[in-house]
Specification:
The chain is mainly alpha-helical. Helix content is 81%, strand content 0%. This is LysE family translocator. InterPro entries: LeuE-type (IPR001123).
């Protein structure tokens, strides 16, 4: 992979990462409800899931996407149902003005990571994107081990650089809220975004 190809690949993945979809909506919802720091594990999980899909495309799982489309439909529906559940939890949560204690945030890291991973993994269009996208930049049949490592590193870096700031920007909204009523409205707005992400995933079959 040349430097020019790598830079172009990085830019294309960055744009793909910040394109509105279920992941971005979930990040906005989490940032608005829990703050920017809580978005980091979600973003890491989403980004690593995308890298896994990229590697799957590299190693030939395009055949699975073609011949086992029913499996991906089931995954998509389960992912949409999970997003609906998260949206419901936000809608019904009690308003609080206190940020989560440090210990609770650390304990919540893996939960956020898993949520992010599942949100991205439940969107089969991600692997279809990579199946169509990768041949534009590289001959998959001629990739070496180092090429795959470089591509995966560029992919992960571009996604994180794109999506983490989205969560922090959403988290800044929370700083200006000072009443339980405002927090309740924010939680319901975040829940609506999460439900919207589920609807987006469910309807784009």
């Amino acid at each position: 992979m040349t430097i020019e190809t790598g830079l172009t690949f990085f830019l294309a993945i960055f744009i793909f990462g910040i394109t509105p979809g279920p992941g971005i909506l979930a990040l906005l919802a989490r940032g608005m409800s829990k703050g920017g720091n809580a978005c980091v594990p979600l973003a890491v999980g989403m980004s690593l899931s995308d890298v896994c899909y990229m590697l799957a495309a590299v190693f030939g799982l395009s055949a699975l996407a073609t011949h086992w489309s029913e499996l991906f439909t089931v995954i998509r529906i389960l992912g949409a149902a999970y997003l609906f559940y998260l949206g419901y939890k936000l809608w019904t949560s009690s308003p609080t003005l206190d940020d989560a204690p440090a210990m609770r945030v650390r304990g919540d890291w893996w939960r956020g990571f898993i949520q992010g991973f599942l949100i991205s993994a439940s969107n089969p269009k991600v692997i279809l994107f990579y199946i169509a996208f990768l041949p534009t930049f590289m001959d998959i049949t001629q990739l070496t081990g180092s090429d795959i490592v470089i591509a995966a590193t560029l992919n992960l870096s571009a996604l994180l650089i794109g999506v983490v700031p989205v969560g922090y920007l959403a988290g800044r909204i929370r700083r200006y809220l000072r009443s339980p009523q405002a927090i309740r409205r924010l939680n319901r707005g975040a829940g609506s975004l999460m439900i919207g992400a589920g609807s987006y995933l469910a309807l784009r079959g």
